[in-house]
Amino acid sequence: MKGGPLRIVVIALAMLAVAGLSLAIVLGFFGATHPAFDSLSHFRIHFAAMLVFPGLLLAIVASGRERRVGLLAMVFSAAVTAATLGTPLGGPVGPAAASPGDLARYRLLHLNLRFDNPDAAAFLSLLGSEQPDVVTLVEVSEPWAERLKLTEAAYPHRLICRRGIRIGGAAILSKRPFAGSEPRCIDRGAMALATVDFGGTRIAVAALHMGWPWPAEDDWQMAALAPELANLAPRAILAGDFNAAWWSARVKTLMALGGLELAGRGGPTWLHRRLPAALRPLIGLPIDHVMAKGGVITLDLRRGPDVGSDHLPMIFDFALLPETGPPSVMQAGL
User: Fold this and answer.
1) In terms of Cα–Cα distance, which of 212, 228, 132 is closest to 172?
2) Measured distance CA(69)–CA(32) in Å, rounded
3) What would the pLDDT profile of 158-175 be if each residue is shown by its tens digit?
């Protein structure tokens, strides 16, 4: 392809691809300005990966200015990826009042069940193998509410929110007793909130399902959640399907409202169910998160196996500082 119309067309299309993908990436960094830009930000890593291909094509086929554009596109792709993913996991690491080995270890499992997922056996098997102290769930449809009755003996303390819509609401299942204020369903059941007693330490535990980002309208949901998050207990864990990447303005806004920090970054958790499930942890979107505050030490945050949903479970191992500990999320062994 040394010359001719075909080479010109290929170079022109590659230049257009570089321009379009670069613009989408740049606009995503202005997500706080408009929700449309924030919707682009969720796909930042995907756009950066896609940018490599027209950049490489220009570097091979073109010459002069177009070739330099291709090389710059690949450098820009690497820089964007490093700027987004190349920082330490989770929140700051600080001194603890006691080493993690001196503290009790607890486990939280979070999952978007997928309202029409018929595979209850896989989920129940996961509960049996992981033995979480508390489970946060979203998309608990009426069929799932019935299936969850099988867990009543192991998780007698529970809050299941009905939403009156097909996908269902949020839920909290706990081996450990609820304490303090009455468990509540918030935002028409999209959020479940309960205070759980972890060996004498009370922690507010919440499960949240955010709606789709722009162009779906979510201003009303942010408005409903703002006072609830602002009044969240000083010691709290919030797990959910945020339908947003952790670097997005949406997630940062929710963290700021609740004074929360990411407990860690578990990687991609969602991929459209028509695509192979094996690709989910590789090219999916990281939209399921765990946040915390109030002396919560992250011991481990990882993704669980496929259980038939279009989301992967998040498994969060943590310890709790004594009540006198600093109100922050800490990390150990990460």
Assistant:
1) 132
2) 29
3) 999 998 889 999 999 999
